Structures are given as structure tokens and as C-alpha cells.
Amino acid sequence: MDFATRIAAWQQRHGRHDLPWQNTRDPYRIWLSEIMLQQTQVGTVIPYYERFLGRFPDLHALAAADQEAVMPYWAGLGYYARARNLHRCAQVIVSDWGGRFPPDASAIATLPGIGRSTAAAIAAFAYGERSPIMDGNVKRVFARHFGIAGDPARRETEIRLWALADAQLADGAGQAVDMAAYTQGLMDLGATVCVRGKPRCERCPVNETCIARRDGRQAELPTPKARKASPERRTGMLLLQHDGKLLLERRPSPGIWGGLWSLPEFDAGLDAAAACKALGAAPGAVFELAAFSHTFTHFRLHVRPWYVVVSQAPAALERPWRWVDAAGAADVALPAPVRKLIDGLFAAGLPQDVMAPAA
User: Fold this and answer.
1) CATH 3.90.79.10 domain residues, the chain
2) Which fold has domain 3-132+168-192?
3) Which residues are CB-contacts of 6 (< 8 A; sequence separation ≥ 6)?
4) Which of 327, 285, 279, 333 is nearest to 306 (CA)?
5) For a designed S-S bond to 261, which of 182, 192, 248, 358 qualifies (C-beta 3.0 to 4.6 A apart)?
């Protein structure tokens, strides 16, 4: 039995079958799940997926919405360019494809935010197309099974892995394979058996032909990426309170937290009161809150938040801005750490009287 057939047969007996985006041929639902699952674990995605579908049940509903209406349903999921591309992609499908998903992987891959592997997964699940996938988990499966050394993120290694993926579906290989089962099987194998730390080789359907298992190289394959120290960045955030409301401004897009609402920022080494005045606000009491850090893909951000009671609201800001109370903040798309900070402050009732003013 060849590689693809063994994977598909294993998935049908031992794979995952109860995920909310399975057992459908609807490319919209499949596409949504594939985008959400990029760099995000299944357990995290499920509630977002269900909530998103409750608000945008089909492609036309998503395309007709404003981006600002979409972002609250993504807030907290991270990698916000995915949400912007998702919205743009829906609009392109409606305008250029008559509201119907393109019929094959090569056409799907031309859409915003969809690469070769994601396009192949959509085509396999929706149309049964024989196109290979190669996401992070699948790279690990192929690197171990076929003994491929080298960082999978490097172009030369990735080319070798894609060639092997193509070969498993070439003429004479896996001709009768169920593509949905094979594609899901690769995903399931990488997520539940051929895992990063301690692979469960005894449960693997292709362990008899696995080079890493044969040679005891599971720990060294795939070749780990060379570790680099993450850059450290620092910023100050202003929680400006006026008449029981806090000031928010929309982050520029593209960029970190692009399209979301957040707090005005300033150089962490500057004076918070002076930063308020630079915005055109008249600061009254100024309180320094507990600092916190947030890790992004390529750097770590250290934040010093300042709670400032202003007697005069800013006349204008560089970006769109709004004042929100606790109820209004609940309906706004906020980055997860900013959400935690603001919710905690509102839960305390904006308690300026119980905090010591900053020196």
C-alpha cells in the first residue's frame, strides 16, 4: 500500500471527524477554517469559527460587511492581516467570480491571502482535487518520513518537500485515494501523532517506511530553525478618561494590530502628561499602571500604560478616534492585551481615587 493510501485509510479509522468545519463541501466554510487555522491551534479556533459564521453565514454576507464590522469577530485571534485578506477575498469572489468560489486550486491561489497549500486544501475538501498540501505540520511529517534535512522554511528545503508531496499523487501513486481523507490525514498525523516534541511513532500508519524512525532521528528532523534573539520594543499607552469614557484610536492598516482599535501610544521614555498635551488634551491626575509585555512573531513589546484624567478632550487625532464606556468597549475590536487592560480598568470602575498618583 503506498504512502497516500495508508494515510487516507488511517484517517478514515483514527483521524478527527467531529470538527465543526468537517463533513461539508461548502468552500466558504472550508476556506474560513483554513485561514483561521493558519498559525492558530484547533482548540482556539473553534469558538471563533462558530461565532464568525453566526454573524457572516455565507460569502455574500461577509463581502457586504464593512471591515470594521468584521474585525470584532477576529479580535483576539491574532495575525490580523488574515482578517483583512479574508474580507477582501470575499469581495473579490463576489466581484470577479460571480459570488462562487473558483473551481480549482490554481485559481483559488490567485485570491488575496491564499497561498498554494491553503488553495490545495480548499480544493481537496470542496472538490476532491488531487493537489498536495504543505503546511507546517505536514512539513514535519515529510521531513521525518523521507529523511529531509535542512530548515523547512528555507527555499531549497521547501522545494524538495513540495517535490515529494507531488510525487505521492503522481501517476501510479495513490490513484484511488480519497483526497479529502488524505489531506485531512496529513493534517491529523502532524497534529496528533508526528508532533514536535515526542512523536507517537507506534501509532503512525507509515512508521515502517519512516527514515527518521529507522535511523533514530526524530528529534533532529525537521532541522530546527536557527534561533535569533527577539528584538525588544517599548512603548507607552495612554488611557485617557473623560466623563467616564476612555479614548480609543484605530490602528493603521497594514501594521501591528492593523485595523483594530487601541490606545494612543507615545515614546515610553517621555512624560505621560506631556504626551497628553501633545494630543491637545489637558491632563489632570496622572497614574502609572502595571507594565506588561506582549510577544509578536518577530519581536516582544513592553508597554507602560498611564491612566490620565483629562479635563479637556483632544480636539483631533491623527487617526480615527472615539470615546467608549464599558458597554461600548465590549463591542469594539481590541487587541487581546489591550482588551484585558481596558476590561480590568472598567471592572474597577475607573478607580482614580484608589490609586496613588505617579511621582
Assistant:
1) 232-354
2) Endonuclease III; domain 1 (1.10.340)
3) 205, 206
4) 285
5) 248
- Considering the candidates 34, 202, 249, 288, report the single residue annotated as catalytic: 34
Q: Is 320 helix (H, G, I), strand (E, B) or coil?
A: coil
CA-to-CA distance for 136 and 156, rounded, in angstroms?
16
Q: What is the pLDDT of residues 261-296, one digit of tens each?
A: 999 999 998 899 889 888 888 888 888 999 999 998
Give CA–CA dist 261/237, Å, rounded: 13
pLDDT at res. 358: 44
The CA distance from 243 to 250, in Å, is 21
Share the mean pLDDT of the chain: 92
Range(s) for CATH 1.10.340.30 in the chain? 3-132+168-192
pTM for this one?
0.87
Q: Phi/psi class of residue 133: alpha, beta or left (left: φ > 0; alpha: ψ in -120 to 50)? A: beta
Indicate the CATH number for domain 232-354.
Answer: 3.90.79.10
- Intra-chain end-to-end CA distance of the chain, in Å: 74
CA 307, CA 329: separation in Å to the nearest integer? 16
User: pLDDT tens digit string along 187-243?
Assistant: 999 999 999 999 999 999 999 999 999 999 999 999 998 878 889 999 999 999 998
157 CB-side CA count, 13 A = 20
158 catalytic, yes or no? no
DSSP letters spanning 217-249: -TTT-SPPPPP-PPPEEEEEEEEEEETTEEEEE
DSSP 152-190: TTSHHHHHHHHHHHHHTTSTTSSTT--HHHHHHHHHHHH
Q: Give the pLDDT confidence of 150-201 residue by residue, as tens digits.
A: 999 999 999 999 999 999 998 766 678 999 999 999 999 999 999 999 999 9
